[in-house]
Amino acid sequence: MSSVLQGFTKSLAMTFVSEIGDKTFFAAAILAMRYPRRLVLAGCVSALIVMTILSATVGWAAPNLISRKWTHHITTLLFFGFGLWSLWDGFKEGGGGSEELAEVEAELDSDLKANGKTTKDNNSKVEDENKKQKRPFLTQFFSPIFLKAFSINFFGEFGDKSQLATIGLAADENPFGVVLGGVVAQLLCTTAAVIGGKSLASQISERIVALSGGMLFIIFGIQSFLTSVQA
User: Fold this and answer.
1) Rounded distance, CA 231 to CA 125, Å?
2) Count of CA atoms in the C-beta half-sphere (13 A) of 226
3) pLDDT, tens digit (0-9, with 9 covering 90-100), for 105-157
């Protein structure tokens, strides 16, 4: 039980500080300003839950491929590496999240314009019927807004710091606790982004978030190192 609680606590803290002010956080906030919040929240949270489970599964399988001793050492190095990376980003960042918010908004705008060109001049019933028949398979079962929110967040997390850290954490801690903590943190962050919208996102200090995340990763790294020394 203590192993599950430790994995849950570490994953909750790590994911929360990694996702607040992240690119996917800003994307969720902007999408919620343009589309129904319910669909945006469902799409974003579903994507992040799937990614968390996949990452934790990879981390859980890692000790079966290489020894647990080596996975522990790799995890320790990951924590220190991400900690230094986050601290460096924090010292370089400006005070607020306006720049990244504007960057994400510009990317979404360009994507919407590209999609908008393909949806004009479809007024006749015959054309609408033909379009329904040619729709992608998934859109026949899910809302296009849900799929858009899902894809933006899912692919936005690939190779992200939080994904790699989740893999390392699941290799060293109880995977169930890691998944549970990650899901709760993702739900909290995404809900805040969807409800708070652009006004909340613009108030977030990327410097404070990066420095806080860096310090947390360093603390996890020290704890992991001390555990290996005592073993």
Assistant:
1) 71
2) 6
3) 777 666 656 555 544 444 444 344 444 445 555 556 678 889 888 988 898 88
User: What is the pTM (predicted TM-score) of this model?
Assistant: 0.75
CA-based Rg of the chain, rounded to a whole angstrom?
A: 20
HEC assignment per residue over 55-104: HHHHHHHHHHHCCHHHHHHHHHHHHHHHHHHHHHHHHHCCCCCHHHHHHH
- What does the alpha-carbon distance between residue 92 and residue 1 come to, in Å, rounded to a whole number? 40
In the block, which residue shows the tokens 């054309």? 127
